[in-house]
C-alpha cells in the first residue's frame, strides 16, 4: 500500500493554509465596509486576494508529492491508487456536500418564508448562479470544469472542483512508471508555461476566465510537484541565510500584492515561500509555528467552506431583521467585519470537529473496507 503515516507533518505548510484562508475571508468580507473605507483605493492587496487560492493549489501539489513519494519511480498498483483516491475524496467531498446542502436549504427556507408571507416561491434558482444544471454539477464536483462562466451555489467550492481534477491527474502519475511519469510531467509543464506566459504577456489576471479554472489549478498544482522534486536545494542553506530569504520573499510578496504586479510574479513568490518553509526551519517557520496561527491552519478548510454562506446570510438578512444598516458608519462597519470574522472561527471549529473529521473517517473506513473485501485473497 502507499504508506503515509511515517511522513512528518510540515507544520509551516499547515499554518500557511490558515493564513491563506484568512486572507480569502478578509477579501470577501471587505464588501461590508463603509464606502468611506475603501482599501482598494490605497492598495491592490485585497483586489489580488484571489491569488491565495493559487497558493492553496501550490501547497496541495507539494504536500501530496511529499506524502505519496512522487519521486519514487515505481508504478503504484491499482489498490494503492484507489486508496489514494479514497483518501482525497474523503478529505474534500463530505464538507463540500454538507455545505452545499446547507446553501440549498438556505434558499429553500427563504423561498418558503417569502411564500408564507404572501409572496411567490422564488429565488431558489437564479440564472446561472443557481441553476438546476449547476446543482447537479455541484453534486458531482465538476462545476468548475469549464461548463459555467462563474462560481455557483457555495461559491468557494469551485476550487474543490478543480483541485479534485488535479487529484485525478496526480493519481495518473502514481499509476505510471518513472519514464512515463516524466513524459507526462513534461507535457504538463509545457501547458503550465504556456498558460503563465500568456498572462505575463497580456498582464491579465489569472481569474478573468472562469472556464480556464482547470488549467489555472493544474498549473499551480504542477508548481507544487516540481518544487517538491527540487526541494533538496534548500537543505544546503544555513538557518541564518534561510531566515534572510524567508523575510525577503515574504516582503516581496506583500509588496507585489500591494502594488498589483502581474499575477505570475506573485505566484512565483508564493511558490518560493512554499519551498523555503518545507523543512520547518528559519524565522518565518518559527512564527508560523505559533499556536494560534498553526491552529488556524488546522481549521482552514472549514473556515474556507463556510465563510461565504455566512457573508451571504448577513448581506441578505441582517438589515431586514435588525433594522440596522450594515455600513451606516465607518466605525460600525469595522466592528461588524470584526464580528463576522470572529463568528467564522467557532463555526469552523464546530464544523471541523463534528462534521469534517467524523465524515472523513467514516467514508474512508467504509470505502477502504469495500476495497479490501474486493482485493483480499480468499482462503482456499
UniProtKB/TrEMBL annotation:
Annotated InterPro entries: Acyl_transf_3_dom, Acyltransferase_3
GO cellular component, one term: membrane
GO biological process: polysaccharide biosynthetic process
GO molecular function: acyltransferase activity, transferring groups other than amino-acyl groups; hydrolase activity
TM ranges: 12-29, 49-71, 92-117, 157-176, 183-201, 213-229, 267-284, 293-310, 330-350
Every Acyltransferase domain range: 15-350
Protein name, entry field: Peptidoglycan/LPS O-acetylase OafA/YrhL, contains acyltransferase and SGNH-hydrolase domains
Keywords: Acyltransferase, Hydrolase, Membrane, Transferase, Transmembrane, Transmembrane helix
Organism: Nitrosomonas communis
A matching Pfam family: Acyl_transf_3
Amino acid at each position: 500500500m502507499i504508506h503515509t503515516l511515517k511522513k512528518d507533518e510540515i507544520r509551516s505548510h499547515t499554518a500557511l493554509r490558515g493564513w491563506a484562508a484568512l486572507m480569502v475571508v478578509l477579501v470577501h468580507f471587505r464588501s461590508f465596509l463603509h464606502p468611506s473605507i475603501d482599501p482598494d483605493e490605497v492598495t491592490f492587496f485585497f483586489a489580488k486576494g484571489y491569488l491565495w487560492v493559487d497558493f492553496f493549489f501550490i501547497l496541495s501539489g507539494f504536500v501530496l508529492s511529499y506524502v505519496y513519494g512522487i519521486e519514487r519511480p515505481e508504478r503504484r498498483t491499482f489498490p494503492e491508487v484507489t486508496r489514494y483516491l479514497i483518501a482525497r475524496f474523503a478529505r474534500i467531498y463530505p464538507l463540500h456536500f454538507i455545505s452545499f446542502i446547507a446553501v440549498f436549504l438556505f434558499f429553500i427556507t427563504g423561498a418558503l418564508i417569502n411564500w408564507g408571507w404572501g409572496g411567490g416561491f422564488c429565488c431558489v434558482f437564479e440564472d446561472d448562479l443557481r441553476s438546476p444544471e449547476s446543482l447537479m454539477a455541484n453534486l458531482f464536483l465538476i462545476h468548475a470544469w469549464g461548463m459555467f462562466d462563474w462560481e455557483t451555489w457555495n461559491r468557494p467550492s469551485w476550487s474543490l472542483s478543480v483541485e479534485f481534477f488535479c487529484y485525478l491527474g496526480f493519481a495518473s502519475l502514481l499509476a505510471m512508471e518513472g519514464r512515463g511519469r516524466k513524459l507526462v510531467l513534461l507535457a504538463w509543464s509545457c501547458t503550465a508555461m504556456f498558460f503563465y506566459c500568456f498572462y505575463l504577456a497580456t498582464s491579465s489576471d489569472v481569474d478573468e476566465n472562469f472556464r480556464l479554472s482547470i488549467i489555472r489549478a493544474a498549473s499551480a498544482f504542477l508548481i507544487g510537484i516540481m518544487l517538491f522534486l527540487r526541494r533538496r536545494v534548500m537543505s544546503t542553506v544555513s538557518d541564518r541565510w534561510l531566515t534572510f530569504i524567508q523575510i525577503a520573499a515574504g516582503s516581496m510578496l506583500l509588496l507585489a500584492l500591494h502594488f498589483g504586479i502581474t499575477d505570475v510574479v506573485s505566484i512565483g513568490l508564493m511558490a518560493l515561500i512554499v519551498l523555503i518553509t518545507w523543512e520547518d526551519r528559519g524565522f518565518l517557520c518559527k512564527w508560523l509555528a505559533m499556536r494560534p496561527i498553526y491552529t488556524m491552519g488546522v481549521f482552514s478548510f472549514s473556515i474556507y467552506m463556510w465563510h461565504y454562506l455566512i457573508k451571504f446570510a448577513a448581506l441578505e438578512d441582517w438589515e431586514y431583521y435588525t433594522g440596522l444598516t450594515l455600513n451606516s458608519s465607518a466605525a460600525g462597519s469595522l466592528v461588524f467585519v470584526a464580528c463576522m470574522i470572529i463568528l467564522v472561527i467557532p463555526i469552523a471549529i464546530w464544523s471541523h470537529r463534528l462534521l469534517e473529521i467524523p465524515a472523513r473517517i467514516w467514508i474512508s473506513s467504509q470505502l477502504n473496507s469495500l476495497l479490501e473485501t474486493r482485493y483480499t485473497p480468499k482462503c482456499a
